[in-house]
TrEMBL record, chain A:
<feature type="domain" description="FAD/NAD(P)-binding">
    <location>
        <begin position="2"/>
        <end position="323"/>
    </location>
</feature>
<dbReference type="InterPro" id="IPR041575">
    <property type="entry name" value="Rubredoxin_C"/>
</dbReference>
<dbReference type="InterPro" id="IPR016156">
    <property type="entry name" value="FAD/NAD-linked_Rdtase_dimer_sf"/>
</dbReference>
<comment type="pathway">
    <text>Nitrogen metabolism; nitrate reduction (assimilation).</text>
</comment>
<dbReference type="InterPro" id="IPR052034">
    <property type="entry name" value="NasD-like"/>
</dbReference>
<keyword id="KW-0479">Metal-binding</keyword>
<dbReference type="GO" id="GO:0016491">
    <property type="term" value="F:oxidoreductase activity"/>
</dbReference>
<keyword id="KW-0285">Flavoprotein</keyword>
<keyword id="KW-0408">Iron</keyword>
TrEMBL record, chain B:
<dbReference type="GO" id="GO:0003954">
    <property type="term" value="F:NADH dehydrogenase activity"/>
</dbReference>
<dbReference type="Pfam" id="PF01568">
    <property type="entry name" value="Molydop_binding"/>
</dbReference>
<dbReference type="InterPro" id="IPR006657">
    <property type="entry name" value="MoPterin_dinucl-bd_dom"/>
</dbReference>
<keyword id="KW-0408">Iron</keyword>
<dbReference type="GO" id="GO:0022904">
    <property type="term" value="P:respiratory electron transport chain"/>
</dbReference>
<keyword id="KW-0411">Iron-sulfur</keyword>
<feature type="domain" description="Molybdopterin dinucleotide-binding">
    <location>
        <begin position="576"/>
        <end position="681"/>
    </location>
</feature>
<dbReference type="InterPro" id="IPR006656">
    <property type="entry name" value="Mopterin_OxRdtase"/>
</dbReference>
<dbReference type="InterPro" id="IPR050123">
    <property type="entry name" value="Prok_molybdopt-oxidoreductase"/>
</dbReference>
Length: 515, 698
């Protein structure tokens, strides 16, 4: 089995295969990857940018199954099958079932897996590229393999090398008291901007549509997110397109202004990397290489998964779930495993902002649930940067935007993931635990059956009877009923009860204790 | 506690004792514990069943013991020594646990011995041994918790299972990890503490998620923590990578615990000058229990807690002698002194103490579930001796266990009341209860305690040690090898444990008589860790790991772990998670506590806690009888609406027998290392008890 690509999904597939077949008894695995360091965790690049993580942290984790009986000490578990990184596949000969590597070698395969990922989409903007393409700096970003090298003060953010390059730009900008412009106010742009701001880098996000994350958010939520980000020091220019990058000056905008900036980060989307698949004649759909539920392409001996495949691309979670499905099939663990899609949940990973979007929240027809239409709930609290919108069809959550209500998000995402029915108390669902806790009522409000001392099953009624039978001090109540003789947690309640009983039943309180 | 006999009737009265762990507190089980001693349901004469379908009839001791040993000897002669098995208990005294292990290996010559503690602490024990080179519930006195600024309780509910311990916690500084809002979680919430309610079976990911947050938020970069990891541990880099993959949003999606709560919990924990992480059965009773505990230990090590004065990691024991019971040879793979059974030097030492040849000591046998599952099968044991346990109720997939117990040629049960297991026995031996015999116990701190007999057993009742003595002598061993009195057994236990991990050599009886606090390892009465002073000064090793961990290099090991799913997940047919646990009023299988009137009145029958929405969808009103169905069987239980339950989860206490036995549902998928069954996660559906067509799981 040959895997082309050792990014997040390709390396995850290797891991999943090794977990199921640790001794290489069923699958002989070869991984071909372009990056010298394979399988770094792209999700963690913002963490790397803000300095919380090291390059080592985002590199692949320890390989091998942790559930083997012997202590899973790093390095103990050997990887089976030859691993080949640092090279690329230049062609696939489907008839001969071989791949041709850039270094001239040919590798035969029984099964080929394409995990070639995606590439950044560059806007058609003058000034992004070096005037003389091919000056070939070592740190040239990955995107322009087809479009020529980017200018030295421009980068994308897909690979570890891109992250290094962006950090270098940010350092230079800081040193000169200058700013970084981020083009694109989607998830990646905002996460990167937030991470740079956390490092003390001045940053402005430029976004062509009037509100941020317009793929996921409605205008109200977008506005509130903008305010929250401004509070965190992230400037924004919204509703205006960029027209030209001018090195040493900044970004020229459609409204005629110039945003002064020392560096430009392009976060303007990504597209499935399908070159290899196309050249060898595999069917390619609008979102990437066409695959069925078994992740098989139009050639039964070739599979594709992750960002390059036309099956929920763009997020990590689907890619990892696909890796598990494919590994189960290829190792023979489960020949009928199928990938049936992953519920789409977007979570902005930006410190200080709690934003979760799921499903389709763009329903504005606020019909009542009775007429069979969608049910829409919305709470706006712009002063506190909070917004919550929930769309239900019947009992199922079909869309939501949750900004600044983290307690609700966690429970809601689980409901959505499983397609489980929503609780009848919709408001509690929308607010999570934000509802005020039950107030600790005084002794008078407690019913007689209320448990006071759990350790010894003593109710208020039992304590009251004991008090009327003459046990008037907390000590006497404890001696007769054993309340407060366990963990002691109810001592205060017993004291309050005793005081309240003495207050409300003074005539009994004065009665001398029976001998 | 103190027990005082009334001058006229001899009826015992319970009074709490002011002791460091309980601070003079007792829960309802403690207050009522003397009631069963005089219960009319006590067994006072041996019972024998003449043939499989015959009723149990009364018999004399000589007849019963002779019958048992004759059958054991026949099976040994015809089918080999491993045809006779032994099942012990974490409720036995140290002396009895030791004698039972020796009885199995020396008198019966069988390798087939394990005990119910396998269902209790084995995951934490395995993780602790790997990380620290040694396993002791709390490696520090419980009173250290009084000054802790943050305590994480993972899958532990001491407000119900060990109420007096709650006095050591400041509830405002508690972080309770439990799928349910337990009494403990509620106590924390009321005081401003935290409750993290993960999806059942995801605590491992939660621990890694907390470690991730601690890492990226810079909590681990303090000079003290950096130096601790450098000087006192190995393996951090690999674990750092494991944690790097569990960013909060990913952790949130799997566990259902809000990323914001993860950050809050990590900040509280990391900001505390003294902090503790404590695990209970909720973390341990999984088919990934060892890895789950390891992940929490990793978090503790990253924060520099273990072996630092005033901080640490610990595991809360479950049974009366949960700690001591696991140290002296009841486990299938273990010899006294917490030695591994394959350890050559340990075997030779035990051979000398026992007066046998090293090669006569059997090797490792089956673990608890595997042992029960093999009973009466072609390759499995044909006879079983049970002491202090009721596996027909407390073992996982209990219907299968009952079937296997029925499949035995010969079952012998020593108990003091009838239980669901004695009902299946061929011979029942009536034995003394806790207040009727002396012995030692080791509490969760590793402190050895003297338990004194408060009264004599009822006429006709013998102690477990007397039973073992009688059986061993009839099997041809000498009486001196199996003394009926606890004192010589303890003397031999001290010699047998000498040089082992749990070294009791220095635990001199006079120290226990004086109530001196003695913590193992205690190589000699004045040995390592001893402090000068009178008898009140702590002896032995009250705090472990202060200078070094128990691995040869003196370092603790970070354990790289990766999350994996529970063996069984909810699906369309069984859409809910079921988790099991204890309630305050009952102990284990309930054989004792269900016979105490006050406890029975407070908690009379099986119930299932469920979110009102989930119950209504199944057509169940509060208080109605529900049927809870898993792939392994069906349980009838009273519906209890609990608004704080996760809508995807139901909870059942496991103390009840028959149609209410929660363990009919549980999944015996085993942890690959500890062989712990997955009590805490099974997939079930909920339906009305009067619904048509009961579909039995098996």
């Amino acid at each position: 089995m040959v895997v082309v690509g050792n990014g997040m999904v390709g390396s995850r597939l290797s891991e999943e295969v090794l977990r199921r077949d640790p001794l290489g008894a069923r699958v002989r695995l070869t991984v071909v990857g372009a990056e010298p360091v394979g399988g770094y965790n792209r999700v963690l690049l913002p963490g790397l940018l803000c300095g919380a993580l090291t390059e080592d942290d985002v590199a692949p984790g320890p390989l091998g199954p942790s559930h083997l009986p012997d202590p899973p000490v790093a390095g103990e578990i050997s990887v089976h099958g030859p691993f080949s990184t640092g090279s690329t596949v230049t062609a696939v000969d489907r008839a001969a079932r071989t791949v041709l590597l850039a270094d001239g070698r040919r590798l035969p395969y029984d099964r080929l897996v394409l995990a070639t990922g995606a590439r950044a989409v560059l806007p058609p903007l003058p000034g992004l590229h070096l005037d003389a393409p091919g000056t070939g700096a070592d740190d040239a970003p990955t995107a322009p393999t087809r479009t020529g090298a980017l200018a030295h003060d421009v980068t994308v953010l897909r690979t570890l090398a891109d992250a290094r390059r962006l950090l270098a730009l940010a350092h230079q900008a800081c040193a000169r008291g200058a700013r970084i412009a981020v083009l694109g106010g989607g998830v990646l742009g905002l996460e990167a901007a937030r991470a740079l701001a956390a490092r003390g880098v001045a940053v402005t996000v430029v976004h062509a549509t009037p509100h941020l994350m317009d793929q996921q958010l409605d205008p109200q939520a977008g506005r509130i997110l903008s305010r929250a980000l401004r509070r965190l020091g992230i400037e924004q220019r919204l509703g205006t397109a960029a027209v030209r990058w001018e090195a040493g000056v900044g970004l020229h905008l459609a409204d005629g202004t110039v945003l002064p900036a020392a560096g430009l980060l392009l976060c303007t989307g990504a597209r499935a990397e399908t070159t290899l698949a196309e050249t060898c004649g595999l069917a390619v759909g609008p979102g990437g290489i066409a695959v069925d539920e078994a992740l098989t392409t139009s050639d039964p001996a070739i599979h594709a998964l992750g960002d390059c495949a036309d099956a929920d691309p763009g997020l990590v979670q689907p890619g990892w779930e696909q890796a598990a499905v494919l590994a189960a099939r290829l190792t023979g663990e489960n020949d009928t495993a199928r990938y049936l899609g992953t519920p789409r949940v977007t979570r902005l990973k930006a410190a200080g902002i709690e934003l979760t979007c799921l499903g389709d929240p763009f329903v504005e027809d606020e019909g009542t649930a009775d007429d069979g239409g969608p049910e829409v709930l919305r709470i706006e609290d712009p002063a506190r940067d909070r917004y919550a919108k929930l769309v239900l069809h019947g009992d199922r959550v079909t869309g939501a935007i949750l900004l600044g209500v983290p307690d609700a998000a966690a429970g809601l995402v689980q409901l959505y993931d499983r397609g489980a029915p929503a609780p009848s108390d919709r408001l509690a669902l929308l607010l999570g635990r934000a509802l005020p806790p039950e107030t600790a009522d005084g002794p008078e409000a407690m019913p007689d059956r209320a448990m006071v001392c759990r350790c010894n099953s003593v109710t208020k009624g039992v304590l009251r009877s004991a008090w009327h039978e003459g046990a008037h001090t907390p000590q006497e109540l404890a001696a007769t009923t054993r309340a407060a003789t366990g963990c002691g947690g109810c001592r205060t309640t017993v004291e309050k009860l005793a005081a309240w009983l003495a207050e409300t039943a003074p005539e009994v309180g004065r009665t001398p204790r029976p001998p | 506690m103190f027990l005082t006999p009334a001058p006229d009737t001899g009826q015992l009265t319970v009074a709490p004792r002011d002791f460091p762990t309980n601070r003079g507190g007792l829960c309802q089980k403690g207050w009522t514990s003397a009631e069963l001693l005089t219960s009319p349901e006590r067994l006072t004469t041996p019972l024998i069943r003449d043939g499989k379908d015959a009723p149990l009839r009364e018999a004399g001791w000589d007849e019963a013991l002779a019958h048992v040993t004759r059958r054991f000897a026949e099976l040994r002669a015809t089918r080999g020594p491993d045809s006779v098995a032994v099942f012990g208990s974490g409720g036995l005294t140290n002396e009895k646990a030791y004698a039972l292990g020796k009885f199995a290996r020396v008198a019966l010559g069988t390798s087939q011995i394990d005990y119910n503690g396998r269902f209790c602490m084995s995951s934490a024990a395995a993780a602790g041994n790997r990380a620290f080179g040694l396993d002791r519930g709390l490696p520090f006195p419980a009173t250290d918790l009084d000054d802790s600024e943050a305590v994480v309780l993972v899958g532990a509910n001491p407000a119900e299972t060990m109420p007096p311990l709650m006095g050591h916690f400041d509830p405002a500084r508690l972080i309770v990890v439990d799928p349910r809002r337990t009494a403990t979680a509620q106590t924390a919430l009321d005081a401003g503490g935290l409750h993290l309610a993960p999806t059942p079976g995801t605590d491992l990911a939660l621990a890694l998620g907390l470690l991730h947050v601690a890492l990226v938020e810079g909590h681990l970069d303090t000079p003290g923590r950096v130096a601790y990891r450098r000087d006192r541990t190995t393996g951090w880099e690999a674990v750092r990578k494991c944690a790097a993959r569990w960013w909060p949003e990913r952790t949130e999606r799997l566990t259902g615990v809000a990323a914001a709560d993860l950050r809050r919990a990590a900040a509280v924990l990391a900001g505390a000058r003294r902090a503790h992480i404590l695990t209970g059965r909720g973390a341990e009773q999984h088919s990934k229990g060892v890895d789950t505990v390891a992940a929490w230990i990793d978090l503790a090590l990253a924060l520099g807690l273990p072996g630092t004065p005033g901080s640490g990691y610990g595991c809360l024991t479950g049974q009366g002698n949960g700690q001591g019971g696991r140290e002296h040879g009841q486990k299938s793979d273990q010899l006294p002194g917490y030695r591994h059974i394959e350890d050559r030097a340990g075997r030779e030492h035990l051979a000398r103490v026992w007066g046998v040849r090293e090669e006569e000591i059997p090797g490792a046998g089956r673990s608890a579930w595997e042992l029960l599952d093999a009973l009466g099968t072609q390759d499995g044991p044909a006879a079983l001796l049970v002491m202090g346990s009721n596996p027909a109720v407390s073992a996982p997939r209990s219907r299968r266990v009952i079937e296997r117990l029925r499949g035995l040629d010969f079952l012998v049960v020593a108990d003091f009341v009838r239980s669901e297991t004695t009902e299946l026995a061929d011979v029942v031996l009536p034995v003394a209860m806790w207040a009727e015999e002396s012995g030692t116990m080791t509490n969760l701190e590793g402190r050895v305690l003297r338990r004194r007999a408060a009264k004599a057993p009822p006429p006709g009742v013998r102690t477990d040690l007397e039973v073992l003595h009688g059986l061993a002598v009839r099997l041809g061993r000498s009486g001196e090898e199996f003394p009926p009195d606890p004192a010589p057994v303890f003397a031999e236990l001290r010699r047998a444990s000498a040089g082992g991990v749990a070294d009791y050599a220095g635990v001199e009886p006079r120290l226990l008589d004086d109530d001196a606090p003695v913590y193992w390892p205690a190589r000699s009465a004045t040995g390592a860790g001893t402090r000068p002073g009178g008898p009140a000064a702590a002896l032995g090793t009250p705090r472990l790991f202060l200078d070094r961990f128990a691995h040869a290099d003196g370092r603790a090991r970070f354990l790289p772990v990766e999350y994996r799913e529970a063996a069984e997940l909810p699906d369309a047919e069984h859409p809910l998670y079921a988790t099991t646990g204890r309630q305050l009023e009952h102990y284990q299988s309930g054989a004792q506590t269900r016979r105490v009137p006050a406890l029975r009145a407070a908690a009379p029958q099986a119930y299932v806690e469920v979110h009102p929405d989930t119950a209504r969808r199944a057509g169940l009103a509060d208080g109605e009888e529900a049927r809870v169905v898993s792939r392994r069987g069906t349980v009838l239980a009273r519906t209890r609406y609990v608004a704080s339950m996760r809508p995807d989860t139901v909870f059942l206490p496991f103390h009840f027998p028959g149609t209410g036995a929660a363990n009919v549902l549980t999944n015996p998928a085993l942890d690959p290392v500890s062989r712990m069954p997955e009590f805490k996660v099974s997939a079930v559906r909920l339906e009305r008890a009067d619904a048509n067509a009961p579909k039995e799981g098996e």
